[in-house]
Each structure stands twice: as structure tokens, then as C-alpha cells.
Amino acid sequence: MKMMTRATVVLLALATAACTNPDRFGGGAGGAGGAGGGVGGVGSASDPASPAYFNQTIGDRVLFAVDTSTITPEGKAILDGQAQWLLTNADYRSVIEGHADEQGTREYNIALGFRRANAVREYLVSRGVPAGRLEVTSYGKERPIEVCSQESCYAKNRRAVTVLSFSAITS
Amino acid sequence: MQTPGTYISAIGHVGLIGWLILGWGFSAEPLRIETMDVSVVTGEEFEAMLQAARTPEPGEAEPDAPVVPEFDETPPPAPTEEEPNAPAPPPEPVEPPEEEVPPPPPPPAPPVADVTDVAPDEPVVPAPPPPSPDVEISQRPTPRQADTVASTISEPPPPDAQVDDVVRDEVVPDDSAEVEVVEDEQEPTAPEDTTDQIVIEDEAPSGVVETSMRPQVRPSRPTPPAPEVDEPEAETVETPAEPETPEPDVDDAVAAALAAAGAGEAPAVQAGPPMTGSERDSFRVSVNRCWNVDPGSVAARVTVEVGFSLDRSGRVEGNEVRLISSDGDQSATNTAFEAARRAILRCQSGGYQLPADKYDQWKDVVITFDPSGMRLR
Amino acid sequence: MMKRLLTLLVALMLAGPVLAQNGPLRLRITDGVIEPITFAVPSFEAESPQAQQVAADLSRLVVQDLAGTGLFREVPATAFISQVSSFAQPVAFADWRAINAQALIVGAVTVSGNQLVVRFRLYDVFSGQELGEGLQFAGTTAGWRRMGHKVADAVYSRITGEGGYFDSRVVFVSEAGPKDNRQKRLAVMDYDGANLQFLTDSSTIVLAPRFSPNGDRVLYTSYESGFPRINVLNVANVGRQQLTTAPGEMAFSPRFSRDGRQVTYSLSNGGNTDIYRTDLSSGQHVRLTSAPSIETAPSLSPDGSQIVFESDRSGSQQLYIMSANGGEARRISFGEGRYGTPVWSPRGDLVAFTKQNAGRFHIGVMRTDGSEERLLTSSFLDEGPTWSPNGRVIMFSRETQGAGGTSSMYSVDISGRNLKAVPIQGGASDPSWGPLQP
């Protein structure tokens, strides 16, 4: 069963990569706006070992207050779950993507997104996840998932998303 | 990270990019930057080149001389055509032809239209040209100055109440029906300093601008504060005009001094009636409404002094205006000078309206164009 | 005592002028008007039959360039009293004065094969003098727009005493698609939006291109790898390569040094963003800041000695200036709100910036010591100013609000006047104004 899952993941990854591009989210097809790109949606949410479970049941993202990179209590709860999952499923690596809302200049928001991603990475490492399995990047305000220009949307865009990728190398 | 997918993707992309570059669009002619020999030809060369094509003509328009004649002779008023220019704020009625005629219709508030373009309220300088000693004339300046005063106060209010007076005085000159000649002369001297200071203070509060999109352009630049002192000249009578503004009591001493001075000086005045304050003001106004300042330019930081002579009809002799002094570098000075020259020549129309019986007083003129109060802030 | 002194003073002041009565009449003028200078451009003379169209187009372009600055206003041909039938013919100044044209531009165009020659002269109508000497530009017919821009630049320069900016290009990000799936690609255009050409496809996010001082290369940030990295693109052949930066995961916000040999940029590592400089030929890196705060958007002074950048070391985004080699920085922005993306003006006297305050974005300028701050624009989202080569105009991005929001580029005179959209199709952002072309 596990083999099947892996095979599926690889196939999907191939398909996705092939028709989009090196930048997973550039084409907007597989990346879903940076909201859980990579192997997101693979498997069943009811299978604790599946990325779908990670993304949907545990939660692949944490949100931030305006112009901050402090992990909230709710965020910590989610990250605790992520850390647990990552420790259990050692075949996966992840790239943590930091994002910002549109209320800010482009450069600053990239730097701010990086701060957010790094805050998540440090938290996960503090929970025992090997640092080598976690990379960070930031899209600043380039990849919002909500498009309205109101706080309700901004709140969802100020996020750090843990994007899983399957890696045979680490297992 | 190095999954097969990545490789496949990479290969796919290389292919795609390659296709894009080779088979499509920009690759073929990437930014074609037309190499054009932009050759700069010197004056002589250029002339030489033109020789061929050119019919034997006298020197092209370079020399003023030829120009002048045309100017005078061509009486094409064609006022109609001008209209199309609509917004032409300046003296459109420029009809070279009628010189002598002291056109009374001169400055009737030039189309203030231009102001519109400029969001910032351009101080509509519709100068009420009436040379007649109307108190009203100075109105336009008055408002501005008022602003200035206000700002000044808000800031570091100058020491004495005097300051106020000074400011108003400025206004006064414009308004005052008849101020003595003396006044004018002084303007260039001491009084100006006062003005500048005030201006600077105004500038300081630049922070205010934050709110407004546009710079509040020139807050009324306090013009040459004509110290009242001058007024007292020969004609005591006029003195009252000056004080128009509430210039009351402030200084009995000064008043007394002025009175005394006036009395004593009167005799000293040269033969020939001196120009009155309003005569000077109307002259000044008729020039400054053609003086176009570009606050964003480097030239707007340069003050130039230019001189010219007028013939009895009030027209610039030989259309010649010369630069006397400047406080800027050459390029900026040149630009500032050309703007000043344009103002003088453009607004002369058929000749500046000046009192014929005082020709000796205005035969030679020196004007200082100081844009420091019009800078962006 | 006081009174006596005053009296004496007054008496002296009065006496001076009176005694000098024989001198010229002296006036001081401090109040001018702010209005466009009027000019007339009779259609350039076509000296060969094939030149007809180009002559007409070229004349119109000169008019567009000049009038587009907001500093000049065209006197329409319908108002002309006399026509200029020949370039060599003497100018009837009175006819131009009568319609209040302050400047007159006459020109002639010759076409032979694909070769185009343009000549022109500029006159100050009221003084009846020619400003400068006649000039001639030679090129190909395909490059006629550049020739027109050249003529307009020369006219602009002679009248204003400052350099022009019409014969210049702008590199920017062309955008398409909704906010949550925006496609971005690099493109270049003439300053007026003409001759649009793409430099990359839209397969990956590209941001903030920056022209090199001579316009031959473009630095930009690309997400090709999933991480922001700096690329250098050769404009002539569209070849590109990744900049070798100091070790780190993310590099962005690059700018060339004035000599084009070095790149100053931001590098993020471990959650911290600092400013670095890399020498393009030696590949050596220098770290210029080392604060735990965000330091980004570096921009060098024209003489290369200083860098203005933004930092949130004080708790919010503000502008700072430091030596080009790093070290102590002094804060120059003190107004309310946040300040970012500073750009040093080519003239060296001003810094343009983006300001956020009370829910609005502004483009503004301040002197390099932080004084005389002036905001030039205000909108839901304005950002990323870039200077025209002569330091007179600022172009920037403006994004509109809401789900259907789009980005476009605008320009504004540093006086705050003449705000207008750059006329190009589709969305556009992150303009970088290149140099005046040779």
C-alpha cells in the first residue's frame, strides 16, 4: 500500500512538474497560488500518512498578524501537528513558503515573508524536525490566495505554508 | 528536490524557451536598437549644408536687427487667430503694430485660465493693470501676502510687530495708489532681505505638504516689501495710501522720521516728477504676468538681474535685454535669463504703459527676477 | 535715544535713493506665473516625396513629447498666420508673436532609400533669436521615432537648460491575469509606451527589473528555482545568467552601481535580510549591513559614495543613508507612516520613495537630508518610483483595489503636476527608466 502511494505521488509530481514549470506556482496550475503546492491533495485525508491528511486535517499553514512574524497560539498547535507528522513520515521534506498581504512594498514583503517562513522553520526544528529537511522561501505579496482588498482577505494571505515534497533521498 | 519531474520539466522548458527564442517573436529581432548616426553638426557645417538647398537668403533669423523691423512693420493683428490658443494667458493682444497708442485695454486681467492647469492655485496674477491710482489694484497681491503672513506667523514669528507691517507694506506698494519713487528704489535694497526671510520661514513648514498632493506652490511670495519708509517722499499726501493696510501707529518714531525725512528730502528729488508707487506697480505687474517660472527646474533657483532701455512709446529698444548679474551656474543662468527676456519682450505688446512725462525716470530699467519664493515646497 | 537713531536711519534710507535718482528704474519681481511655454511646430518640410509621411509623423511626435511634459503647450496649426514652406526661409517672427508662440521649431526631413535625415532649428520668437544651432540627425526610416525624440530632447534641453528624456527606454514587468494567478514577464518599451518588446516568457515570476547605467543589461529577480534569485539579462540578445551572490537562499532587490560593474542587493538568510554588494568581474561579495532587522531596497547616490536604503530597525520601515561601503547609517525619514523603496535622483539632490500612511500609498520626494518632503501622488497602492534620466519625472506602479485590481504605470512631474498613465496595453508594474540613448 505504501508503495502504491509513493508511486502515485511520484507520478503526480512528474505530471505536475512537466506541465507547469520549474517554478511550481508560476503557472498557477499545480501550485494553487502557493497554497499547498507540491504534493498537495495527494492521497486521502483520512490516511494519516498521506499529504492530504497533512494539508487538510493537520493544516499546512499558519497565519500572522499585520507586519509580524510571531507564531500565534493557534499557529503553534498546527505546527505541533506538522512536526509530529514530519517525524512520522521521514520520507518527506518540505519547503516553507512565507507570504504577505498586498499592503506593503514589494521588497519589504519578500523580506517579511522570509521572516515568517523562518519563524515556522525554527519552530518545527525546535520540535525535533531535522533542519536539513526544511527549506524556506518567500513570495512576498506575489501569490495571494484571496483577492479582495479587505482585512478578511489580507488575514488569509499573511501566511506561511508548509509544502511537502517527496524525497527518497532522506528515507 | 532533484526528482525526475524536475528533469522532465527542465527539459520541457528548455525546449519551450528554445522554441520561443528561435521560432518566435523577439528572438528574431531582439531589441533592435537602430543605430542611427546622430551626428551633431556645427553651425558652420550646418550652414554650409544648407547653402545648397537654400536660396540666397540673408543670414537667417539670427540677428535681431532684421527681426525688429519685421516686428514693427508687420501689423498683422490677426487677433482672431490668437483665440484658438485659448489658454494663452499672457498678453495675447500683442499687436506689435500699435505701439504708441497707450492701449488702455492692456492688462485687463489676462486670462487667468492657466491657473486651471495648475492644480496648485497659481496665484492668479491677473494684474489689474490700471495704472490709475486705484487702491483696488493691488487686490490680487493682497490675498497672497495675507497667506504669507499667516504662515510666517505660524512659524517663527519674527520679532517685532514690525514684521507684519513689513509684509503689508509689500502689499501696499502694489495697492497704494501713489507711492513715491523713492520707495521703489529702496525695494531692491534693504526691504528685500526682509522678504526673503519671511519666505524662508514659510518654507520651513514644508511638512504640511504631506497632506496635499501638490506642493502648495508658491505661497504668495511676499514681494519686495516696500518699506513704508520710502513713501514719505516728497508727497506726503500719498503716504496715507501706503498705510492702507493697517499700518497704524506702530511707530510714531518712524512716522515722525518719515515725515521729517519727507519734508526735507522733497526738495532733493530730481527734476521731473517721480513715478508713483502705482505706476511702478503696474509696470511690474505687466511684466510679471508674462514671467513664466518652472518651479521644478534648476533655473528656478537662480535670481537674475537684467537691464534694458525703453523708447518713449514704452517699447524695448532694439528688443534687446541684457543680463547684468546672476547667482547661478551658466546653464541655469541662461535659462533664467531667457525666461526673464521672454517676459519683458512678450508683455510689452505695443509698449509698456508708462507716464510719458516721466520718461527720464523709466528710460533705463533694471529688473531683478527672483523666483526663490516660487520653489516647490 | 532709540527714536533718534530710528530717525537717522530713516533719513539715511531715504536720502540714498533720492540721491541716486539718476540711475535706472529698478524693479524686483518675485511673483511669476506657472504655465506651459507655448510653442509651434509647423509640419517639418519634406524635402523628398517619400519623406512626406515621415515628416508629418515626426513633427507630431515632437509635439507629443514636448506637450506631454506639461511644461509646454502647443499652439495648434489652425492658429498659424503664416506657414513655413521652406526650412531655409527666414522666419516671420511677427506672425508667431501674434499668435503668442514663444518657441518655434522648424525642421526638414529627407528620405533616400531607408536613410532618414532630420534637421531642425529652434527660435525664441519674442527675441527673434535662434536658440542654439541647427542640428541634424541621421538614421534609418525604421528608427524615425528615435529621431523625433532626439529633436524633442534637443528642444527641451535648450529651453529648460536641462537634459531631456524622450529618447529613452523603460524596462518593466508586463502583467496579465487575476491577482491570485498573475502572469509576469519582463518587457521594454520606449518612454512613451511605443515599441513594446518582451524579454522573457511568463513561465515564472519575475520582479523589479533594473536597467544598467548604459542600458545594455537588466538585473531582475526571478523565481525560476522556487526561490528568489537575481538574474542578469543582456538586452541585445536576451541571454541571461544567474548572478553569483553571497551564499544564501534568497537574493532580490538588485541595482547596478553607476559604473555597471557591481551589484548591490538584498540577501535573506535565517530570517534576516541584509544588504550586500557583489563585484561582477571578480565575484567577490561584501556585506554592507548586519543588523537583525530588514535592510533592503538599496540605491546608490550618483557619485557612488552613498547608499540610501530602507530598514525597519526602528520598528517600522524608514529610510537611511550610509556610506557605499557600509557602516553607520543615519535615518532621513521622520514623517508619519512607513517609507520604502528609496531611489536616489540622477541630479543627486532628492530621494524618491514610497510612503504608506493611513491606509494610502504615496510616491514622494525629499532632499537627501530628509527635509522638504513632498508627496506627489496618493492612491490605494502606489509604489516603486524610478527617475527619468534628467531627474525631472518619476514613473511608478499603481495597483487598483479589489479582486479585479490591475497594475499600471504612471508618471508624474516632480512638481506633483502632470500625473498620467503610461499608455500601454495590459497590466504593467515595476518600471525602471533607462538612460538617454546615445
Model description:
The complex is a heterotrimer of chains A (171), B (377) and C (438). Chain A is an alpha+beta fold and 171 residues long. Chain A has five helices and four strands; from the N terminus they run ααβαβαβαβ. Chain A has a four-stranded mixed sheet with strand order 1-4-2-3, sandwiched between helices. In chain A, helix 3 (73-88) packs across helix 4 (106-126). The longest helix of chain A has 21 residues, at 106-126. Residues 1-37 of chain A have low confidence and may be disordered. Chain B has 377 residues and is mainly α. Chain B is extended and about 105 Å long. Chain C is mainly β and 438 residues long. Chain C is built from four helices and 32 strands. Chain C has helices at residues 2-19, 52-68, 93-98, 144-160, and strands at residues 25-29, 37-40, 45-46, 72-74, 103-112, 115-124, 129-130, 135-140, 168-176, 183-190, 197-198, 206-211, 217-222, 229-234, 240-242, 250-256, 262-269, 272-279, 285-287, 295-300, 306-311, 318-323, 326-331, 338-344, 350-357, 360-367, 374-375, 382-387, 393-399, 407-413, 420-421, 427-436. In chain C, strands 2, 3, 4, 5, 6, 7 and 8 form a seven-stranded mixed sheet that branches. Chain C has a four-stranded antiparallel sheet with strand order 11-10-9-32, with no helix packed on it. In chain C, strands 12-13-14-15 form a four-stranded antiparallel sheet, with no helix packed on it. In chain C, strand 13 (217-222) and strand 14 form a beta hairpin. In chain C, helix 2 (52-68) packs across helix 4 (144-160). The radius of gyration of chain C is 26 Å and the shape is globular. The model of chain C is unreliable at 8-20 (pLDDT under 50). The interface between B and C is large, with 163 and 116 residues. Strand 3 of chain B pairs parallel with strand 1 of chain C, so a sheet runs across the interface.
Give a short overview.
The complex is a heterotrimer of chains A (171), B (377) and C (438). Chain A contains five helices and four strands.
**Major beta sheet summary of chain C:** 7 strands, mixed
* Number of H/I helices of chain C: 4
Average pLDDT of chain C? 92
Tell me the name of the CATH homologous superfamily of the largest domain in chain C.
TolB, C-terminal domain
Q: What general form of chain A does the structure show?
A: globular
Large-scale geometry of chain C: globular
Please give the CATH class of the largest domain in chain C.
Mainly Beta
Give the oligomeric state. heterotrimer
Overall pLDDT of chain A: 80
Report the end-to-end length of chain C measured between terminal Cα atoms.
Answer: 71 Å
Low-confidence stretches of chain A: 1-37
Order of strands across the main sheet of chain A: 1-4-2-3
Radius of gyration of chain C: 26 Å
Strand content of chain C: 35-45%
Helical run tally of chain A: 5
- N-to-C series of helices and strands of chain A: HHEHEHEHE
- The percent range for strand residues of chain A is 15-25%
Structural class of chain A: alpha+beta
Largest interface: B-C, 163 and 116 residues
Query: In the CATH classification, which architecture of the largest domain in chain C applies?
Result: 6 Propeller
How many strands of chain A?
Answer: 4
